[in-house]
Design brief:
By secondary structure, the protein is of the alpha/beta class. It folds into two domains: about 240 residues, Rossmann fold; about 150 residues, 3-Layer(aba) Sandwich (Rossmann fold), CATH 3.40.50. The protein is about 45% helix and about 15% strand. The chain is built from 17 helices and 17 strands. The strands form two sheets. A nine-stranded mixed sheet has the order 1-2-5-4-3-6-7-8-17, with helices on both faces. One of its GO terms (molecular function) is adenosylhomocysteinase activity. May play a key role in the regulation of the intracellular concentration of adenosylhomocysteine.
Length: about 425
């Protein structure tokens, strides 16, 4: 993309967004999120007094939502210089972007990016010379490793927010091409057990209902993938009264789905039965040619994985004789054999494109992890250097986030007595 080609209203060296006049609206949205993110807000207060990130540049490629804004303001409160771009072409909230710019954060993001614009925005974050990177999906990390725009030796570490990105960075690590350590925030228990399950479960259903205006009850609902996101989607679809089918390639996950009461079968067989399909795997063409050929008239297709590759949209275009945009986020494909298939949100993240993404309450824990890991990375200067591979978040951070969330919810729990601690530490005790 050439420098003069940006199709936006507001552009300077420090930001390129849709319209800075939307800042007041964005400020209200962020205020709402802050009210529902007590753990991150508490960390922000600590950061304001401690300044643990002073002198650091933090580059972020995340969904530009009101929840992300709370994290960005927290990092800035900690003394960091912060730059942000979107991790998906259609997930940016333009009002939030405008408000962040007003708060002194560099933002290169607007809703509706084409591919060239998307990577141009990432390049602007690379040019901010980050010492710490925060990624969601792995595009930022991969771009740094295929670009000579910044010396990688200046990056002390990075974080990854989602399963798709973890898979990509694990692959980079195994192949020996990862040039700085990355911390798997996605794999913390306070992230995947809650964000992936409850957040994705609720927001995906919300996106489908908003886009399709459809009744879930009584429908046959096919969930492709039974990871933590798939578990959440299946659980919420069942709660709405759907008859849930799960498709899987992992025998253990498939067995778990069956034990949880769901029908389990191959996607090509499920395609004949389903009314609504959701992919949540992080893999390519999970809903592929045979499945698309087997689907009945009126089937609705959605994706909740990070990239728009889980549904074979190219083949859907190939078998369609006519394509009609019914309304925003709903496209009808009239196939050559007379069926009508409906693609939601262009095959991108339906929960962010057609809805507002995860609720603030659950993102509170995910972004608390991000903030505390950034602090932890900044404090490691005099410790043994981390290897250039994927690392787990220290257990003490995960536990601290859980403790703070319980406190914010007003929930008290038991603690071990001296006698109980001694019992757990002695192998001699038995029956």
């Amino acid at each position: 993309m050439e420098e003069g080609d940006v199709k936006t209203v507001s552009k300077t060296d420090n930001y390129t967004i849709k319209n800075e006049e939307l800042s007041e609206k964005g400020e209200k949205e962020i205020s709402w999120a802050e009210q529902h993110m007590p753990v991150v807000s508490d960390i922000k207060e600590d950061f304001e007094s401690e300044k643990p990130l002073k002198g650091l540049n933090i580059g972020c490629c995340l969904h530009v939502t009101k929840e992300t804004a709370v994290l960005m303001k927290t990092l800035k409160a900690g003394g960091a210089s912060v730059a942000l771009c979107g991790s998906n072409p259609l997930s940016t909230d333009d009002a939030v972007a405008a408000s962040l710019v007003k708060d002194g954060i560099k933002v290169f993001a607007w809703r509706g990016l084409d591919e060239d614009e998307y990577f141009w925005c990432i390049d602007q974050i690379i040019d901010s010379e980050p010492n710490i990177t925060m990624d969601d999906g792995g595009d930022f990390t991969a771009r740094i490793h295929t670009s000579d725009r910044v010396p990688e030796k200046d990056i002390i570490g990075g974080t990854e927010e989602t399963t798709t990105g973890i898979n990509r960075i694990e692959s980079m690590s195994k192949k020996g091409v990862l040039n700085y350590p990355v911390i798997a925030v996605n794999d913390t228990m306070t992230k995947y057990l809650f964000d992936n399950r409850y957040g994705t479960g609720q927001s995906t259903i919300e996106g489908i209902i908003r886009a399709g205006s459809t009744l879930i009850a009584g429908k046959t609902f096919v969930v492709c993938g039974y990871g933590w996101c798939g578990r959440g989607i299946a659980m919420r679809a069942e709660g709405f009264g759907a008859k849930v089918i799960v498709t899987e390639v992992d025998p253990i996950k498939a067995l778990e789905a069956a034990m949880n009461g769901y029908r389990v079968m191959p996607i090509e067989e499920a395609a004949k039965k389903g009314d609504i399909f959701v992919s949540a795997t992080g893999n390519k063409h999970v809903i592929g040619k045979k499945a698309l050929e087997n689907m009945k008239d009126g089937a609705m297709l959605a994706n909740s994985g990070h990239f728009d590759i889980e549904i074979d949209i190219d083949y859907l275009n190939k078998i369609a004789e006519r394509r009609t945009e019914i309304k925003p986020n709903v496209k009808e494909y009239k196939t050559k054999d007379g069926r009508k298939l409906y693609l939601l949100a262009e095959g991108r993240l339906v929960n962010l494109v057609a809805a507002n993404g995860h609720p603030s309450d659950v993102m509170d824990m995910s972004f608390a992890n991000q903030a505390l890991v950034a602090k932890w990375l900044s404090e490691r200067k005099n410790e043994e250097e981390l290897e250039n591979k994927l690392h787990a978040v220290p257990a003490k951070i995960d536990k601290k986030v859980a403790e703070r969330k319980l406190g914010a919810l007003g929930i008290e729990i038991d603690s071990l007595s001296k006698e109980q601690k001694e019992y757990l530490e002695k192998w001699e005790y038995g029956t």
